Amino acid sequence: MSQIAPNPDSSNPGAETGTSLARSPNFKYWVFGALAIGIFASVVDHGSVNVALPTIAEEFNTDLPTIQWVVIIYALTIAALLLPMGRLSDLVGRKKVYIAGMVVLGAGAALSGLSPALEMMFPSRVLQGVGSAMTQGTGMAIITAAFPANEKGRAIGLFMTMVGVGAVAGPAIGGVVVDAFGWRVVFFLTLPLEVIGIVATWWVMRGWTEVQERSGTRFDWWGAALSTGILVALLLAMTTGNKAGWTSPPIIVAFASTVVMLITFIWWELHTDAPMLDLRLFKGRTFTFGVTAAFLTFLGSSAVLFMMPFYLQDVLGYSAKTAGFVVVPGALCMAGLGTVSGVLSDRFGRRPFTVGGLASSAMGLFILSRVTGDSSLFMVVPALMLMNAGMGIFYSPNSSSVMATVGQIKYGVVSGFLNLVRNAANVSSIAVATIIVTTTMASQGFEPSLEAVRDEVPGVASAFTLGLRYAFLTMMGIVLASMTFSALQPNYVEDLELAESPAKV
After folding, report:
1. Where are the domains of the chain?
2. Cα–Cα distance between 379 and 372 in angstroms, integer?
Protein backbone atom coordinates (compact mmCIF):
# COMPACT_ATOMS: atom_id res chain seq x y z
CA MET A 1 0.00 0.00 0.00
CA SER A 2 1.32 3.44 -0.85
CA GLN A 3 1.33 6.18 1.73
CA ILE A 4 -0.18 8.70 -0.66
CA ALA A 5 -2.90 8.20 -3.22
CA PRO A 6 -3.95 10.03 -6.40
CA ASN A 7 -6.73 12.54 -6.04
CA PRO A 8 -7.55 14.01 -9.45
CA ASP A 9 -9.53 17.21 -9.29
CA SER A 10 -11.16 18.49 -12.48
CA SER A 11 -11.36 21.98 -11.00
CA ASN A 12 -7.60 22.10 -10.65
CA PRO A 13 -5.77 22.31 -14.03
CA GLY A 14 -2.57 20.99 -12.46
CA ALA A 15 -4.19 18.00 -10.77
CA GLU A 16 -4.09 15.74 -13.85
CA THR A 17 -0.39 16.49 -14.37
CA GLY A 18 0.28 15.92 -10.67
CA THR A 19 -1.51 12.57 -10.77
CA SER A 20 0.48 11.54 -13.86
CA LEU A 21 3.73 12.38 -12.10
CA ALA A 22 2.68 10.49 -8.99
CA ARG A 23 2.03 7.36 -11.07
CA SER A 24 5.53 7.52 -12.49
CA PRO A 25 7.91 4.81 -11.25
CA ASN A 26 10.35 7.60 -10.42
CA PHE A 27 7.86 9.51 -8.26
CA LYS A 28 9.66 8.45 -5.08
CA TYR A 29 12.82 10.16 -6.31
CA TRP A 30 10.87 13.29 -7.24
CA VAL A 31 9.57 13.42 -3.66
CA PHE A 32 13.05 12.88 -2.24
CA GLY A 33 14.52 15.56 -4.51
CA ALA A 34 11.91 18.12 -3.50
CA LEU A 35 12.28 17.48 0.23
CA ALA A 36 16.07 17.13 0.05
CA ILE A 37 16.31 20.85 -0.73
CA GLY A 38 14.59 21.78 2.53
CA ILE A 39 16.43 19.15 4.57
CA PHE A 40 19.79 20.38 3.30
CA ALA A 41 18.85 24.01 3.97
CA SER A 42 17.80 23.39 7.57
CA VAL A 43 20.94 21.39 8.43
CA VAL A 44 23.28 23.89 6.74
CA ASP A 45 21.59 26.70 8.69
CA HIS A 46 22.27 24.96 12.02
CA GLY A 47 25.97 24.32 11.27
CA SER A 48 26.68 27.77 9.87
CA VAL A 49 25.09 29.53 12.87
CA ASN A 50 27.41 27.64 15.24
CA VAL A 51 30.41 29.07 13.40
CA ALA A 52 28.96 32.59 13.65
CA LEU A 53 28.48 32.54 17.45
CA PRO A 54 31.77 34.29 18.41
CA THR A 55 31.08 37.08 15.92
CA ILE A 56 27.50 37.49 17.18
CA ALA A 57 28.78 37.65 20.77
CA GLU A 58 31.22 40.41 19.79
CA GLU A 59 28.51 42.44 18.03
CA PHE A 60 26.11 42.25 20.98
CA ASN A 61 28.95 42.74 23.50
CA THR A 62 28.19 39.59 25.47
CA ASP A 63 30.08 36.45 26.54
CA LEU A 64 30.07 33.02 24.87
CA PRO A 65 28.08 31.25 27.65
CA THR A 66 25.25 33.72 27.02
CA ILE A 67 25.45 33.61 23.23
CA GLN A 68 25.44 29.80 23.28
CA TRP A 69 21.76 30.05 24.16
CA VAL A 70 21.22 31.06 20.53
CA VAL A 71 21.94 27.38 19.78
CA ILE A 72 20.59 25.82 22.99
CA ILE A 73 17.16 27.47 22.82
CA TYR A 74 16.85 26.39 19.18
CA ALA A 75 17.74 22.76 20.01
CA LEU A 76 15.41 22.71 23.03
CA THR A 77 12.48 23.93 20.94
CA ILE A 78 13.07 21.27 18.29
CA ALA A 79 13.35 18.42 20.80
CA ALA A 80 10.29 19.54 22.78
CA LEU A 81 8.02 19.84 19.74
CA LEU A 82 9.12 16.90 17.56
CA LEU A 83 6.57 14.47 19.02
CA PRO A 84 3.55 16.85 19.01
CA MET A 85 4.33 18.05 15.47
CA GLY A 86 4.76 14.47 14.25
CA ARG A 87 1.37 13.55 15.69
CA LEU A 88 -0.21 16.69 14.27
CA SER A 89 1.08 15.79 10.82
CA ASP A 90 -0.58 12.37 11.09
CA LEU A 91 -3.90 14.10 11.78
CA VAL A 92 -3.94 17.04 9.37
CA GLY A 93 -1.51 15.86 6.68
CA ARG A 94 2.27 15.72 6.55
CA LYS A 95 2.59 17.77 3.38
CA LYS A 96 0.67 20.65 5.00
CA VAL A 97 2.74 20.55 8.19
CA TYR A 98 6.03 20.26 6.27
CA ILE A 99 5.32 23.22 3.97
CA ALA A 100 4.02 25.33 6.87
CA GLY A 101 7.16 24.39 8.81
CA MET A 102 9.37 25.57 5.96
CA VAL A 103 7.55 28.92 5.95
CA VAL A 104 7.97 29.27 9.74
CA LEU A 105 11.64 28.26 9.50
CA GLY A 106 12.29 30.89 6.84
CA ALA A 107 10.45 33.59 8.79
CA GLY A 108 12.46 32.79 11.92
CA ALA A 109 15.72 32.90 9.96
CA ALA A 110 14.87 36.30 8.48
CA LEU A 111 13.93 37.74 11.87
CA SER A 112 17.13 36.33 13.40
CA GLY A 113 19.22 38.01 10.71
CA LEU A 114 17.45 41.32 11.31
CA SER A 115 17.68 41.15 15.11
CA PRO A 116 19.06 44.40 16.60
CA ALA A 117 19.53 42.77 20.03
CA LEU A 118 19.43 39.40 21.82
CA GLU A 119 15.93 40.25 23.08
CA MET A 120 14.75 39.73 19.51
CA MET A 121 17.29 37.07 18.56
CA PHE A 122 16.15 34.52 21.17
CA PRO A 123 12.43 34.50 20.27
CA SER A 124 13.38 34.43 16.58
CA ARG A 125 15.46 31.32 17.21
CA VAL A 126 12.50 29.77 19.04
CA LEU A 127 10.43 30.42 15.90
CA GLN A 128 13.12 28.71 13.82
CA GLY A 129 13.02 25.78 16.22
CA VAL A 130 9.25 25.46 15.76
CA GLY A 131 9.75 25.36 11.99
CA SER A 132 12.51 22.75 12.27
CA ALA A 133 10.35 20.56 14.53
CA MET A 134 7.59 20.73 11.91
CA THR A 135 9.94 19.65 9.11
CA GLN A 136 12.44 17.19 10.63
CA GLY A 137 10.24 14.22 11.51
CA THR A 138 7.61 15.06 8.90
CA GLY A 139 10.14 15.15 6.05
CA MET A 140 11.50 11.75 7.02
CA ALA A 141 7.94 10.36 7.21
CA ILE A 142 7.02 11.69 3.75
CA ILE A 143 10.15 10.29 2.10
CA THR A 144 9.72 6.91 3.81
CA ALA A 145 6.07 6.79 2.71
CA ALA A 146 6.92 7.61 -0.90
CA PHE A 147 9.08 4.48 -1.23
CA PRO A 148 7.68 0.93 -1.35
CA ALA A 149 7.61 -1.09 1.88
CA ASN A 150 10.64 -3.12 0.80
CA GLU A 151 12.73 0.04 0.24
CA LYS A 152 12.37 1.80 3.60
CA GLY A 153 16.09 1.40 4.27
CA ARG A 154 16.92 3.10 0.97
CA ALA A 155 14.54 5.96 1.79
CA ILE A 156 15.96 6.63 5.25
CA GLY A 157 19.50 6.23 3.93
CA LEU A 158 18.90 8.93 1.32
CA PHE A 159 17.42 11.16 4.01
CA MET A 160 20.47 10.69 6.24
CA THR A 161 22.82 11.34 3.33
CA MET A 162 21.33 14.80 2.87
CA VAL A 163 21.61 15.41 6.62
CA GLY A 164 25.26 14.34 6.52
CA VAL A 165 26.11 16.49 3.49
CA GLY A 166 24.43 19.48 5.13
CA ALA A 167 26.33 18.87 8.37
CA VAL A 168 29.64 18.93 6.49
CA ALA A 169 28.75 21.93 4.33
CA GLY A 170 27.22 24.06 7.12
CA PRO A 171 30.37 24.99 9.08
CA ALA A 172 32.43 25.42 5.91
CA ILE A 173 29.89 27.69 4.21
CA GLY A 174 29.23 29.55 7.44
CA GLY A 175 32.91 30.26 8.00
CA VAL A 176 33.36 31.70 4.51
CA VAL A 177 30.17 33.80 4.71
CA VAL A 178 30.93 35.23 8.17
CA ASP A 179 34.44 36.26 7.12
CA ALA A 180 33.28 37.80 3.83
CA PHE A 181 29.89 39.34 4.60
CA GLY A 182 29.26 39.23 8.38
CA TRP A 183 27.12 37.05 10.61
CA ARG A 184 23.70 38.39 9.54
CA VAL A 185 24.09 36.95 6.04
CA VAL A 186 24.35 33.46 7.57
CA PHE A 187 20.66 33.61 8.46
CA PHE A 188 19.63 34.83 5.01
CA LEU A 189 21.84 32.30 3.23
CA THR A 190 19.30 29.46 3.14
CA LEU A 191 16.17 31.54 2.42
CA PRO A 192 16.36 31.01 -1.39
CA LEU A 193 16.72 27.25 -0.85
CA GLU A 194 13.75 27.22 1.51
CA VAL A 195 11.58 29.05 -1.04
CA ILE A 196 12.64 26.61 -3.77
CA GLY A 197 11.97 23.69 -1.39
CA ILE A 198 8.45 24.92 -0.62
CA VAL A 199 7.57 25.36 -4.30
CA ALA A 200 9.14 22.02 -5.30
CA THR A 201 7.32 20.10 -2.55
CA TRP A 202 3.96 21.66 -3.47
CA TRP A 203 4.52 21.01 -7.18
CA VAL A 204 5.66 17.40 -6.87
CA MET A 205 2.95 16.39 -4.39
CA ARG A 206 0.03 18.31 -5.86
CA GLY A 207 -3.03 16.25 -6.76
CA TRP A 208 -2.33 13.71 -4.03
CA THR A 209 -3.85 13.07 -0.63
CA GLU A 210 -2.25 11.14 2.18
CA VAL A 211 -3.38 8.12 4.11
CA GLN A 212 -3.94 9.55 7.59
CA GLU A 213 -6.02 9.22 10.72
CA ARG A 214 -9.77 8.85 10.41
CA SER A 215 -11.69 12.10 10.30
CA GLY A 216 -12.67 13.35 13.73
CA THR A 217 -9.66 11.96 15.61
CA ARG A 218 -8.76 14.55 18.20
CA PHE A 219 -5.32 15.89 19.04
CA ASP A 220 -3.96 14.85 22.44
CA TRP A 221 -3.31 18.29 23.97
CA TRP A 222 -2.52 16.91 27.44
CA GLY A 223 -0.07 14.43 25.97
CA ALA A 224 1.55 17.21 23.93
CA ALA A 225 1.88 19.46 26.99
CA LEU A 226 3.34 16.69 29.15
CA SER A 227 5.80 15.46 26.50
CA THR A 228 6.96 19.03 25.89
CA GLY A 229 7.38 19.66 29.62
CA ILE A 230 9.36 16.43 30.06
CA LEU A 231 11.81 17.31 27.30
CA VAL A 232 12.25 20.93 28.34
CA ALA A 233 12.88 20.06 32.02
CA LEU A 234 15.21 17.15 31.22
CA LEU A 235 17.29 18.89 28.57
CA LEU A 236 17.58 22.11 30.57
CA ALA A 237 18.89 20.08 33.51
CA MET A 238 21.33 18.13 31.31
CA THR A 239 22.51 21.30 29.57
CA THR A 240 23.07 23.45 32.66
CA GLY A 241 23.74 20.81 35.33
CA ASN A 242 27.51 20.81 35.04
CA LYS A 243 27.76 24.58 35.51
CA ALA A 244 24.98 24.97 38.12
CA GLY A 245 25.99 21.83 40.05
CA TRP A 246 24.20 18.50 39.75
CA THR A 247 23.03 18.67 43.37
CA SER A 248 21.89 22.29 43.24
CA PRO A 249 18.17 22.89 44.04
CA PRO A 250 17.17 24.03 40.52
CA ILE A 251 18.69 20.93 38.90
CA ILE A 252 17.15 18.57 41.48
CA VAL A 253 13.75 20.23 40.95
CA ALA A 254 14.14 19.89 37.17
CA PHE A 255 14.92 16.16 37.39
CA ALA A 256 12.12 15.58 39.91
CA SER A 257 9.68 17.42 37.64
CA THR A 258 10.81 15.27 34.73
CA VAL A 259 10.06 12.07 36.66
CA VAL A 260 6.63 13.29 37.82
CA MET A 261 5.62 14.44 34.33
CA LEU A 262 6.92 11.19 32.78
CA ILE A 263 4.82 9.06 35.15
CA THR A 264 1.79 11.26 34.46
CA PHE A 265 2.42 11.07 30.70
CA ILE A 266 2.58 7.26 30.75
CA TRP A 267 -0.64 7.04 32.79
CA TRP A 268 -2.44 9.49 30.52
CA GLU A 269 -1.29 7.85 27.27
CA LEU A 270 -2.51 4.46 28.50
CA HIS A 271 -5.95 5.81 29.41
CA THR A 272 -6.79 8.30 26.65
CA ASP A 273 -8.63 7.22 23.50
CA ALA A 274 -6.32 9.07 21.09
CA PRO A 275 -2.81 9.05 22.63
CA MET A 276 0.05 11.24 21.46
CA LEU A 277 2.26 8.13 21.31
CA ASP A 278 0.73 4.64 21.41
CA LEU A 279 2.75 3.02 24.21
CA ARG A 280 1.50 -0.41 23.14
CA LEU A 281 4.17 -0.25 20.46
CA PHE A 282 6.73 -1.02 23.18
CA LYS A 283 5.22 -4.50 23.50
CA GLY A 284 7.02 -5.44 20.30
CA ARG A 285 10.69 -6.38 20.44
CA THR A 286 11.47 -4.82 17.07
CA PHE A 287 10.21 -1.40 18.12
CA THR A 288 11.52 -1.49 21.70
CA PHE A 289 14.98 -2.82 20.89
CA GLY A 290 15.29 -0.54 17.86
CA VAL A 291 14.45 2.60 19.85
CA THR A 292 16.70 1.52 22.73
CA ALA A 293 19.59 0.81 20.37
CA ALA A 294 19.14 4.22 18.72
CA PHE A 295 19.22 6.04 22.06
CA LEU A 296 22.26 4.14 23.33
CA THR A 297 24.11 4.60 20.03
CA PHE A 298 23.78 8.38 20.07
CA LEU A 299 24.39 8.48 23.82
CA GLY A 300 27.65 6.62 23.24
CA SER A 301 28.94 8.64 20.31
CA SER A 302 27.55 12.19 20.06
CA ALA A 303 29.96 13.69 22.62
CA VAL A 304 32.96 12.80 20.45
CA LEU A 305 32.43 15.74 18.09
CA PHE A 306 31.89 18.03 21.10
CA MET A 307 35.08 16.95 22.89
CA MET A 308 37.44 16.63 19.92
CA PRO A 309 37.92 20.41 19.31
CA PHE A 310 39.17 20.79 22.92
CA TYR A 311 41.61 17.93 22.41
CA LEU A 312 42.77 18.92 18.93
CA GLN A 313 43.22 22.64 19.66
CA ASP A 314 44.12 22.84 23.35
CA VAL A 315 46.07 19.60 23.78
CA LEU A 316 47.58 18.90 20.35
CA GLY A 317 47.81 22.59 19.43
CA TYR A 318 46.10 22.56 16.03
CA SER A 319 44.21 25.57 14.66
CA ALA A 320 40.42 25.75 14.61
CA LYS A 321 40.52 25.40 10.83
CA THR A 322 42.54 22.19 11.01
CA ALA A 323 40.32 20.83 13.78
CA GLY A 324 37.31 21.44 11.52
CA PHE A 325 38.84 19.56 8.60
CA VAL A 326 39.78 16.60 10.83
CA VAL A 327 36.12 15.67 11.33
CA VAL A 328 35.16 16.00 7.63
CA PRO A 329 36.30 12.51 6.46
CA GLY A 330 34.24 10.84 9.19
CA ALA A 331 31.18 12.94 8.39
CA LEU A 332 31.48 12.01 4.72
CA CYS A 333 31.71 8.33 5.66
CA MET A 334 28.49 8.65 7.65
CA ALA A 335 26.70 10.44 4.83
CA GLY A 336 27.78 8.01 2.11
CA LEU A 337 27.39 4.73 3.96
CA GLY A 338 23.93 5.64 5.26
CA THR A 339 22.42 5.15 1.80
CA VAL A 340 24.55 2.10 0.99
CA SER A 341 23.58 0.25 4.17
CA GLY A 342 19.94 1.25 3.72
CA VAL A 343 19.83 -0.24 0.21
CA LEU A 344 21.70 -3.42 1.18
CA SER A 345 19.66 -3.96 4.35
CA ASP A 346 16.46 -3.93 2.28
CA ARG A 347 17.89 -6.86 0.34
CA PHE A 348 19.88 -8.85 2.88
CA GLY A 349 18.19 -8.04 6.19
CA ARG A 350 18.88 -5.40 8.81
CA ARG A 351 20.70 -7.19 11.63
CA PRO A 352 24.12 -7.66 9.90
CA PHE A 353 24.28 -3.92 9.24
CA THR A 354 23.06 -2.69 12.62
CA VAL A 355 25.37 -5.03 14.53
CA GLY A 356 28.28 -4.59 12.12
CA GLY A 357 27.95 -0.81 12.12
CA LEU A 358 28.00 -0.64 15.91
CA ALA A 359 31.03 -2.93 16.02
CA SER A 360 32.83 -0.43 13.77
CA SER A 361 31.80 2.47 16.03
CA ALA A 362 32.96 0.61 19.14
CA MET A 363 36.34 -0.06 17.52
CA GLY A 364 36.71 3.63 16.63
CA LEU A 365 35.91 4.64 20.21
CA PHE A 366 38.41 2.10 21.56
CA ILE A 367 41.17 3.62 19.40
CA LEU A 368 40.19 7.11 20.58
CA SER A 369 40.39 5.90 24.20
CA ARG A 370 44.12 5.33 23.60
CA VAL A 371 44.92 8.98 22.74
CA THR A 372 47.73 10.77 24.57
CA GLY A 373 49.05 14.31 24.74
CA ASP A 374 51.04 13.84 21.53
CA SER A 375 48.94 11.44 19.44
CA SER A 376 49.16 11.72 15.66
CA LEU A 377 46.29 12.71 13.37
CA PHE A 378 47.02 9.43 11.57
CA MET A 379 45.55 7.80 14.67
CA VAL A 380 42.69 10.24 15.31
CA VAL A 381 41.30 10.60 11.77
CA PRO A 382 40.93 6.83 11.03
CA ALA A 383 39.33 6.34 14.46
CA LEU A 384 36.78 9.08 13.73
CA MET A 385 36.13 7.54 10.31
CA LEU A 386 35.50 4.12 11.88
CA MET A 387 33.13 5.57 14.45
CA ASN A 388 31.15 7.70 12.00
CA ALA A 389 31.06 5.02 9.33
CA GLY A 390 29.54 2.67 11.89
CA MET A 391 26.92 5.30 12.77
CA GLY A 392 25.96 5.66 9.12
CA ILE A 393 25.77 1.90 8.60
CA PHE A 394 23.63 1.46 11.72
CA TYR A 395 21.10 4.28 11.48
CA SER A 396 19.26 3.58 8.22
CA PRO A 397 18.43 -0.12 8.78
CA ASN A 398 17.64 0.46 12.46
CA SER A 399 15.25 3.33 11.74
CA SER A 400 13.74 1.31 8.90
CA SER A 401 13.00 -1.56 11.28
CA VAL A 402 11.26 0.78 13.75
CA MET A 403 9.20 2.50 11.05
CA ALA A 404 8.15 -0.86 9.62
CA THR A 405 6.43 -1.87 12.87
CA VAL A 406 3.73 0.79 12.62
CA GLY A 407 0.84 1.42 10.29
CA GLN A 408 1.28 4.13 7.68
CA ILE A 409 -1.07 6.45 9.54
CA LYS A 410 1.54 6.79 12.32
CA TYR A 411 4.63 7.54 10.25
CA GLY A 412 4.67 11.17 11.37
CA VAL A 413 4.62 10.60 15.12
CA VAL A 414 7.08 7.67 14.99
CA SER A 415 9.59 9.50 12.78
CA GLY A 416 9.24 12.47 15.13
CA PHE A 417 9.84 10.15 18.08
CA LEU A 418 12.99 8.75 16.47
CA ASN A 419 14.32 12.27 15.92
CA LEU A 420 13.39 13.13 19.52
CA VAL A 421 15.36 10.12 20.79
CA ARG A 422 18.36 11.24 18.75
CA ASN A 423 18.20 14.83 20.03
CA ALA A 424 17.76 13.78 23.68
CA ALA A 425 20.64 11.31 23.42
CA ASN A 426 22.90 13.96 21.84
CA VAL A 427 22.41 16.33 24.79
CA SER A 428 22.74 13.52 27.35
CA SER A 429 25.93 12.24 25.72
CA ILE A 430 27.63 15.63 26.04
CA ALA A 431 26.54 15.89 29.68
CA VAL A 432 27.83 12.39 30.56
CA ALA A 433 31.19 12.92 28.84
CA THR A 434 31.60 16.34 30.47
CA ILE A 435 30.94 14.85 33.91
CA ILE A 436 33.56 12.14 33.39
CA VAL A 437 36.20 14.54 32.04
CA THR A 438 35.71 17.29 34.64
CA THR A 439 35.52 14.79 37.52
CA THR A 440 38.85 13.33 36.40
CA MET A 441 40.35 16.80 36.18
CA ALA A 442 39.13 17.58 39.72
CA SER A 443 40.67 14.33 41.02
CA GLN A 444 44.01 15.50 39.59
CA GLY A 445 43.76 18.81 41.45
CA PHE A 446 42.58 21.04 38.59
CA GLU A 447 39.50 23.19 38.10
CA PRO A 448 36.63 20.89 36.97
CA SER A 449 35.83 22.91 33.87
CA LEU A 450 36.43 22.42 30.15
CA GLU A 451 37.36 26.09 29.90
CA ALA A 452 40.33 25.37 32.20
CA VAL A 453 41.95 23.44 29.32
CA ARG A 454 42.20 26.68 27.36
CA ASP A 455 44.12 28.41 30.18
CA GLU A 456 47.29 26.35 29.48
CA VAL A 457 47.91 25.62 33.17
CA PRO A 458 50.83 23.13 33.46
CA GLY A 459 49.48 19.59 33.76
CA VAL A 460 45.84 20.41 32.95
CA ALA A 461 46.13 19.03 29.40
CA SER A 462 47.28 15.65 30.77
CA ALA A 463 44.40 15.56 33.25
CA PHE A 464 41.92 16.46 30.49
CA THR A 465 43.33 13.77 28.19
CA LEU A 466 43.06 11.15 30.94
CA GLY A 467 39.43 12.12 31.50
CA LEU A 468 38.84 11.97 27.77
CA ARG A 469 40.18 8.41 27.67
CA TYR A 470 37.82 7.38 30.48
CA ALA A 471 34.92 9.06 28.68
CA PHE A 472 35.62 7.30 25.38
CA LEU A 473 35.92 3.92 27.15
CA THR A 474 32.57 4.52 28.83
CA MET A 475 31.03 5.49 25.51
CA MET A 476 32.46 2.35 23.91
CA GLY A 477 30.70 0.30 26.60
CA ILE A 478 27.41 2.07 25.86
CA VAL A 479 27.77 1.34 22.13
CA LEU A 480 28.50 -2.33 22.90
CA ALA A 481 25.28 -2.41 24.95
CA SER A 482 23.48 -0.96 21.95
CA MET A 483 25.04 -3.67 19.77
CA THR A 484 23.59 -6.30 22.13
CA PHE A 485 20.07 -4.89 21.71
CA SER A 486 20.52 -4.86 17.93
CA ALA A 487 21.69 -8.47 17.96
CA LEU A 488 18.61 -9.48 20.00
CA GLN A 489 16.26 -7.59 17.69
CA PRO A 490 14.21 -10.00 15.52
CA ASN A 491 15.24 -10.19 11.89
CA TYR A 492 11.59 -9.85 10.92
CA VAL A 493 9.10 -7.05 11.47
CA GLU A 494 6.34 -7.37 14.02
CA ASP A 495 3.43 -5.46 12.50
CA LEU A 496 1.19 -4.61 15.42
CA GLU A 497 -1.41 -2.92 13.24
CA LEU A 498 -2.26 -5.40 10.49
CA ALA A 499 -5.79 -5.50 11.78
CA GLU A 500 -6.20 -1.75 11.36
CA SER A 501 -7.42 -0.31 8.10
CA PRO A 502 -6.14 3.24 7.64
CA ALA A 503 -8.80 5.54 6.31
CA LYS A 504 -8.16 7.77 3.33
CA VAL A 505 -9.36 11.30 3.74
Report:
1. 1-214, 220-273, 280-497
2. 11
